[in-house]
């Protein structure tokens, strides 16, 4: 399950974010850049306003001297922050700093933030896991200069989440995320998606939190596993969302001669999507970006022997989306016997109980 983190700067904003369903309340001063810390007294006030209803995280601007860094982290935790977030230094001694913070990580839940637009080295994730960190989060350093998906491809983001999962680190994604990004990033099943700008009036992170914007993002992130429910007023209506004839180069094939180079593969995908009731925004749609991202993530994972494997993985990934009722996937190799194509077509559907839930779901009104 993916949790929604909302960055707030005041007790009033924290209360509004809790009321609108954010899962983690993150104390941050957006006027101080990507990872600006709030004064500790303000963190304490936010913790008080939250009244234990949600975990609170706090940003710390890490002093370079390790003793001071440890003290700053301890102070934020003493102010009531369940998680302490800070930007991982980009200096050559970053790994040493991580190791020196290991004693603090044994007592406090530390989250290291890596800036996607500054070319982070994912090798550091091993060091964070060894030092006992709680998790790692990708964010963007330069706000206003692009979203997370501008800084990193979906394949690289999926690699980040996968490496965190393998190391038992909580994986967070943030960085000027907008509502259409949410279903795309959910495909990677991160533990946390973090937001500030998208929750604010006019999408500007230094503006005040907007209740309707918080609700929009909240509604885009499913809250737990779907279960059976009564069908809603649009039950039975199904749209067909498709990506047709998308040709991508990929490493594929079971023969030795098919290794070490790419061949053209054509993808045609049709998703049967439950129609839902609600406002006329991203909550109403199943984005074809979800299909294209799922294809790119599979391609980025390296050589795959069988078209059947690709088709199954693609269908499985798309059916994770709660609006998808069934999917037909066609995968064709174009370079085996040109101009003919060879390949496979499969149709996969969700289990009936889950399908009933999705048919009956509607989003909250604003
Ligand atoms: O931790 C999450 C950040 O506060 C994200 O801020 P942003 O959405 O404005 O980039």
UniProtKB/TrEMBL annotation:
GO biological process, one term: folic acid-containing compound metabolic process
Keywords attached to this entry: Lyase, Schiff base
Ranges that cross the membrane: none
Enzyme Commission number(s) of this protein: 4.2.3.153
Domain Dihydroneopterin aldolase/epimerase positions: 241-348
Top-level taxon of origin: Bacteria
Keyword Acyltransferase among UniProt keywords: no
Reactions it catalyzes: 2 D-glyceraldehyde 3-phosphate = 4-(hydroxymethyl)-2-furancarboxaldehyde phosphate + phosphate + 2 H2O
A Pfam family matched in the record: 4HFCP_synth
GO MF, one example: dihydroneopterin aldolase activity
Keyword check for Lyase: yes
Described purpose of this protein according to its UniProt entry: Catalyzes the formation of 4-(hydroxymethyl)-2-furancarboxaldehyde phosphate (4-HFC-P) from two molecules of glyceraldehyde-3-P (GA-3-P).
Protein's UniProt name: (5-formylfuran-3-yl)methyl phosphate synthase
Organism: Methylocystis heyeri
